[in-house]
Amino acid sequence: MKKIEKLADDDEKRQKHIVELLTQAFAQLIENDPRAFRRKFRKMAADPFAFYRGSAFLFYADMASLEDRFADERTSRVWIQGDLHAENYGTYMSSDGVLVFDVNDFDEAYLGHFTWDLRRLAASVGLLGFSKALSDGTVREAVEGFAHSYLAQVRAFAESERDEEFRLTLENTDGAVHDVLLEARMETRIDLLQSLTTIEGYERQFREGRGVRRLGADEQGAVYAAFQAYLDTIPESKRQESVSYTVKDVVGRSGFGIGSAGLPAYNLLIEGRTEALENDVVLSMKQGNVAALSQVVSDERIVDYFEHQGHRTAVSQRALQAHADPWLGWCELGGEGYVVAELSPYVADLDWDAVAEPDEILPLLRWLGQATAKVHCVSDAGSEQTLVEFQTEDAIVAAVEGGGGCLRVRAGRLRGGLLPARPRRPPPLRRRLSQRLDPRAAGRLRRSACDWPSSWPTPAWPRAGPPSGWWPTAVCGWAGGRSPIRPATWTRAATCESTGARLRSSPARCTRSTSPRGSCRPWRTPTAGRPWWAWCPPSGACIPSGASMRTPPA
Questions:
Q1: What is d(CA 149, CA 376) in angstroms, rounded to the nearest whole number?
Q2: Phi and psi torsions of 247, nearest 5°
Q3: What region does 340 belong to: left with phi over 0, alpha with psi -120 to 50, or beta?
Q4: Same structural domain for residues 140 and 232?
Q5: In 33-135, where does DSSP find H-type helix?
Q6: In 299-399, at which residue ranges do the beta strands (DSSP E only) sit?
Q7: In terms of Cα–Cα distance, which of 266, 310, 312, 263 is closest to 82?
Q8: Dihedrals φ, ψ of 541, to 5°?
Q9: How far does the chain reach from its first CA to its final CA, in angstroms?
Q10: What is the C-alpha to C-alpha distance for residues 99 and 103, in angstroms, rounded to an integer?
Q11: Which domain range does residue 134 map to?
């Protein structure tokens, strides 16, 4: 396995390698539509970030040659977005009618190492930072904040069985994420319809214009037949009323983004829930592209699972989104796989032009970390698909722990987002504090590295939970005492820096303690906007557990 600095140690060899990969990845599509690919390559030449967006195949060719110490039998076959850069986040309207901020664009979605998504995002942040003239320190802090947030959210999912219920909405976000949700909320279906369609003879139809072409009788008939086959792929639970599937008009489309250059596509105008013209629906039927990841993943279980690229795209999106588009499905046309989805008016992309200052970028990256953890962890044994038959969050936590150590997440100390664990015996200060928090735990504290108390059902952990009324303390071991405060949910403590709780809101700031011993007050009853106090190490740096907790702090 190579080291990353060795990938480009010979410029001439590297250039030749890139040209070969371009030819391999796009030769057939270039032959089909050379004009579209000239536009694509000119867009890619505009700046480093544009090139990065359009060259996922190069990224994965490099990743496949690099060592990944967090990849094992499970974490190397997790559902991932596949092209996770900073601009592939935005909003969508979930199937239950809630505006959600999440990862978007699943054209490259596949199964692979969970760290590949994290590394691709981190590199894109570096390129964006360069374009915004941010210092190396700010970029590093942003990437570390993303990784810290991602891993903390994964751990929260490992401690709960309701990960599909977590989502970023208008109710629990702020800053740039909240702004883009508000922007999406202001959009309307009638505005979208007016931009794409016109009304003639009391009936709605597509407008003529650039990138729109009318179909001949044979092609139109083939599209209608593919649409009828698509209807069978919609889950019964997401079926609309019968009037919703009446096709009113269909046109050919072109002019999509960098990643979809040269791919045939159609737009279909569908009757909405009623015959009223304002609730008509526009569907996109687009040929699925070959996922860049599929060029480096050879697992036959994965390769044989998908019927075609349209099937792969739709199934991957359903796996990665807990409440995916109810119109999402697939079909086959002309021997190629197509993915079908709604052109929703409520899709708004994250606007990086409006985010320029470090105090805007840093909290935004923490939101992105949570969103990324969500798509990775929702697509496991708890979802409808069958390719991943384990709990992704448990597999990631186990991989990071390195086989039996404690999971450690420390702001400002992450290396590539993850730290290997080095369990150690709790020092006297931690034991004294643990006993002070719950005097009844004295003498019963488990001092070994993350061993379970013998009275806990180890094989069922963490699904079963501890005995009623118990809670762990913030040490690499467990308190066997009963807490005077019964938590709403139980959590396992990883290190003395763990909060041991799921947050209802973003972490509050914790000021440095003035205590002579450099330790914070053990705890106090939380109120709105005020944090719990967690313990401080001898350095005096406070580690807050955040505002408004469901459980007592670690």
A1: 14
A2: -85, 125
A3: beta
A4: no
A5: 34-44, 48-53, 56-63, 114-131
A6: 329-333, 336-342
A7: 312
A8: -75, 115
A9: 40
A10: 13
A11: 68-168+356-422
Peptide bond between residue 552 and the one before it cis (omega within 30 degrees of 0): no
83-to-4, 17, 58, 105, 185 alpha-carbon distances in Å:
19, 21, 12, 8, 26
Q: Which amino acid is residue 44, in one-letter code?
A: M
Tokens of residue 374, six digits = 């969500």
Q: How far, rounded to the nearest angstrom, does the alpha carbon of residue 26 sit from its chain's CA centroid?
A: 27
Residue 497 placed within a domain: no
Whether 220 maps to a domain, the answer reads: yes
Is residue 72 located within the same domain as residue 143?
Answer: yes
Q: DSSP per residue over 438-490, as a string?
A: -GGGTT----STTPPPTTS-GGGTTTS-PSTTB---SSSS---SBPSS--SS-
Average pLDDT over residues 413-422: 33
State the total domains in the chain: 2
447 vs 344: CA distance, rounded Å: 55
Q: At what angle do helices 309-320 and 358-378 cross, to 10 degrees?
A: 110
Six-digit token string for 462: 């963490």
Q: What's the alpha-carbon Rg for the chain, to the nearest Å?
A: 26
Of 318, 342, 366, which one is at a domain's C-terminal end? 342
CA–CA separation, 147 and 104 (whole Å): 19
What's the pLDDT tens digit per position in 265-303?
A: 999 999 988 889 999 999 999 999 999 999 899 899 999
Distance CA 29, CA 264 (A): 10
Nearest to residue 68, comparing CAs of 343, 356, 400, 409? 400
pLDDT band at 143 (very low <50, low <70, confident <90, very high): very high
For residue 60, count CB atoms less than 10 angstroms from its CB and return exposed for 0-12, middle for 13-18, buried for 19 or more: buried
Structure pTM?
0.71
Q: Do 209 and 334 have their domain in common?
A: yes
* Two tokens, residue 257: 């983004």
List pLDDT tens digits, range 202-238.
Answer: 999 999 988 899 999 999 999 999 999 999 999 888 8
3-state secondary structure 212-235: EECCCHHHHHHHHHHHHHHHCCCC
Residue carrying the six token digits 């190397």: 76
Residues 316 and 213 in one domain: yes
**What residue type is assigned to position 393 of the chain?**
E
Distances from the Cα of 224 to the Cα of 132, 286, 337, angstroms: 47, 14, 15
Q: Is residue 487 part of a domain?
A: no
Angle (deg, nearest 10), helices 358-378 and 136-158: 30
Alpha carbon distance 146, 159 (integer Å): 20
Helix (H, G, I), strand (E, B) or coil at 60: helix
Identify whether 496 is part of a domain. no
Q: What mean pLDDT, rounded, does the chain reach?
A: 75
- Are 114 and 80 within 8 A, CB to CB? yes
- For residue 365, name the pLDDT band (cuts at 50, 70, 90): very high
Rounded Cα distance, 197 and 65, in Å: 49
Chain mean position to CA 406: 24
Neighbour-count burial for 31-42, b at 16+ CB within 10 Å, e otherwise: eebeebbeebbe
The last residue of a domain, from among 292, 314, 342? 342
